[in-house]
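Memo to structure team: turn this sequence into structure tokens by end of day. - J.P.
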Amino acid sequence: MGNWVVNHWFPAVVIAAWLGLNVFLFVYYFLLFDRDKKFYYTRVLLGSALAWARASAKCLNFNSMLILLPVCRNLLSFLRGTCSCCRRTMRKQLDHNLTFHKLVAYTIALFTAVHIIAHLCNFEWYNDSQQAADGSLSSILSNLHQDEESNKWLNPIHSNSTTPAYVTFTTIPGLTGVIITVALILMVTSSMEFIRRSYFEVFWYTHHLFIIYFAGLVIHGIAGLVRGQTAESLNKHNPEHCAQDPTHWGRKNKHSHCEEPEFGSIPAESWQWVLAPIVLYVFERVLRFWRSQQRVVVTKVVVHPSKVLELQMHKKGFSMEVGQYIFINCPSVSCLEWHPFTLTSAPEEDFFSVHIRAAGDWTENLIDTFQQQKPKTPRIEVDGPFGTASEDVFQYEVAMLVGAGIGVTPFASVLKSIWYKFQHADQCLKTKKIYFYWLCRDTGAFAWFNDLLASLEREMEESGKAGFLNCRLFLTGWDNSIAGQAAFNFDKDTDVVTGLKQKTSFGRPMWSNEFSAVATAHPRSVVGVFLCGPQALAKSLQKCCHQYSSLDPRKVKFYFNKENF
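Reply from structure team:
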């Protein structure tokens, strides 16, 4: 139950609070614009579409205020460091930053659709009221103050020849609304998983349309096309009373005197909502730009099997923790594109490194560039490091590290750091046992960190702690010759595939068996489960964490952590 609280209940409370604020804002402003006397005559022209448009606009402002915060990576790293002494429940929420970013984005898209539909109705009803010549209240309101320069009119359509389409493309609210909508559609569609994975460059470039989105949002309401009755006019003209006899407005009679109502624009408020996040994000980008301009020296380049490029680098003042990641830019490949890569080096080393697998145009071009420009290496720019869930690995008594393919990279940093801690007899190491699972499709992939794993095996044996690290390697793609060779040499001391003492397993792990064994071996421990791999695997591990965590708070608990960047 404790694990379920951390992985489900607490995030659910955060989401519920956010949804609750959205519901509150929508209901509050819907009732305000649907009942406030100030908008009595506006409702005569527009009906309930006024409330739908304004309530959705408030929710759009609220979510636009939030959308940038989850991608302020320096802010998140600062908060993660600040919360290092807090309960892990609090720190874990920072790992959901991209999930929250996506939820807010989809909510913006939803309220944008509501806002657009409501305003399309508004434009039609504005036009209908202007075209009407039947002496109705809406017709009278539409013609009030149209010929004056006092800017006291209610209906923004001032001529019978003006169409809603003309207003849409010739007014500031209309034109910025179209631009904002197009930018939002491009950003949302290019963020789909398939496009983001297969055509990262499309996602990268279109996502920078957020600049146009926020610029349009800030100036969208400054023209004030949607209006309400002014406070001064309300003192002289009570719409609930005066609307009964609009033909006598401005005329004195023995029963009452109602002057012609006067209207003013609703002040633009979007800038008030988004100013602080924009300033924070600009500061974030300036800091990242300044940091990325610091000189990076590539000290070593290694091309591993399965087309994996290892870069070892040095940068003055660079400091890291296990499991962190950096953004890399190579101007020779693209001046604008920055891609995230997990650090594979340990904090104890005098360099930092990454392993880059060919998985798209940019990575393939980067690998080709380094291979073609020997001995001279291309210039590299680095931004970071930034924190991830793997930073907390040494906060657990028992850790299960699960890497799929190149997803092993954050755990390479962890394993290297363990090696150094054993070398220096670190007495502060809280972790007592590590289970390491590495799933690979081909045998060549195991060559990436064979030396490291072999060194760890030797170090554990020499220090008398051979049971500290349980290393499990799984080959998920193989042919009959490899399986036959492994079976034939099974009795040898070292594995035929990796050369390690730990034998390679063929196929995928039976996670229920693995979790059951860990729970039995550590009946009263807190177990951190860390994954860098696909979402399908994440669902399986998360399910097992819930299933094998004891309801008794004194017994074994599994806490799921996944890399997100």
